[in-house]
Amino acid sequence: MMRLNPIIKREIEIKNRSLTLPVAITVINAVLFGIGIAGTSAEVLQMRTSYTLDYGAFLKIYVAVILMQFVMIMFTAPVLTADVIAGERERGTFDLLLTTKLTAGEIVAEKLISAYINMAMIVISGLPAMLIPLMFGGVHIQSTIVMLLILLIEAFMIMSVGMLVSCYCRSSVKSIVISYAFMIALTAGPIVLGGLAGLFSSDGGNRLIYLTAIDPLLPVVTLLSAQIGEGSAIPETVYRMLNGTPDAAFTEHAVLIGLMVQAAIAFACIVLAVIHIMPHKNLRTAAGEIELVHKLIQGKKSS
């Protein structure tokens, strides 16, 4: 029988005792189902009066549900990772954690995995809402499963950033605020910078549009554009608005490129988090403080 790691088991038990996870699942699914059911009901009512079936309208509902779920992930992930390390410091238990046999890498990995398990539960629970528009066709269920996997990958990247912020912060509230700031910078930053650069670029010469590869929205929007039959029309429209013309290879493989770049960002965040909480770093600090106290004592004795 498989046994959970003690840290993962403890974190899961703590989350299960609190109302954070069930409240998050309830609220997110209520919003997603509200969009799906309300939109579908309105289109069915319209169909009854006009005697025509507009598949495009159901595709728009599907897009709205997916984008709303992505927004919910961005707002939920920082809450789940804010107290991973920062909370330990607030409770005064972080130093005790460093005295265990666990390495810094194991602490970061296991804390991140335990938080990601809860995030994955939230994302997967939204699958029924994603399938509501599919009752009338337009998108295959296989496409919806692929989109769900993309959302799970994006959630891991976002939580990796939250983990890094949590390692550097000493309070959960500060960690949440800075994590939200990072998410806004990653999502809106490439568009804003690309737009500013586009004002001073010749026709189609803005090369800063490639910064969109770090934007978590790029894989989601590009895949959505293909699933609703628009090909790469939606991202290309954004590039034209930014006065840029990307290479055909970038446009064709935007989903894969975005995922690879964001996986590199997640890996870098995890490595930096591990380096920051390495026990030997704290030991060096403690040794320096002991040496300073020793010098002060010697100075008092000599005086």
Fold topology:
Elements: H1 6-17, H2 20-50, H3 55-81, H4 86-91, H5 94-98, H6 104-125, H7 127-131, H8 141-168, H9 172-199, H10 217-227, H11 233-241, H12 248-252, H13 254-276, H14 279-302
Description:
The protein is mainly α and 303 residues long. Helices cover 78% and strands 0% of the residues. The protein has helices spanning 6-17, 20-50, 55-81, 86-91, 94-98, 104-125, 127-131, 141-168, 172-199, 217-227, 233-241, 248-252, 254-276, 279-302. The relative contact order is 0.11.
The separation of the N and C termini measures: 67 Å
Summed over residues and divided by their number, the pLDDT gives a mean of 81
Look at the helices and sheets and give the structural class. mainly alpha
Instruction: Tell me the overall shape.
Output: globular
Count of helix runs: 14
Strand content: under 5%
Beta-strand segment tally: 0
Q: Biggest sheet, in brief? A: none
Rg over alpha carbons: 24 Å
Order of helices and strands: HHHHHHHHHHHHHH
User: Helical residue percent?
Assistant: over 70%
Low-pLDDT sequence parts: 282-286
Give the key terms:
303 residues; mainly alpha; globular
Structure at a glance:
The protein has helices at 6-17, 20-50, 55-81, 86-91, 94-98, 104-125, 127-131, 141-168, 172-199, 217-227, 233-241, 248-252, 254-276, 279-302. With 303 residues, the chain is mainly alpha-helical.
